[in-house]
């Protein structure tokens, strides 16, 4: 069941993610303020660690006391893993003027401009074409 509390949490975490991306884009790194905010979310999350053992896999699993804890952990963990495993200079904002998305540029040349070529890239190229041949 999605409650108002969960919706509020998701909006907060979306805002935090955007702050992280803006900080990286403008400063090239995370500001101390952002790091403090991330630490607060981590400290407010009640997670237990469990050992998962089956025939093919041994792993640690993290279980929150509440669904709010689970959601917070998953989002913060994914955000930190992305920053840890990828060059932050490859995290970019989409060049389409109406798009608010950021993406991880994993292209070989590192020159990707759009979050998705089929939507944003195509719209921009089509717009440029129609402007060029309008008259």
From TrEMBL:
Protein origin, superkingdom: Bacteria
Gene3D superfamilies named among the record's database cross-references: Jann2411-like domain
SUPFAM superfamilies xrefs: Jann2411-like
InterPro entries listed in its UniProt record: ABATE, ABATE_dom_sf, Znf_CGNR
Pfam families found in the cross-reference section: zf-CGNR (PF11706)
Domain Zinc finger CGNR, chain residue ranges per copy: 90-132
Protein's recorded name: Zinc finger CGNR domain-containing protein
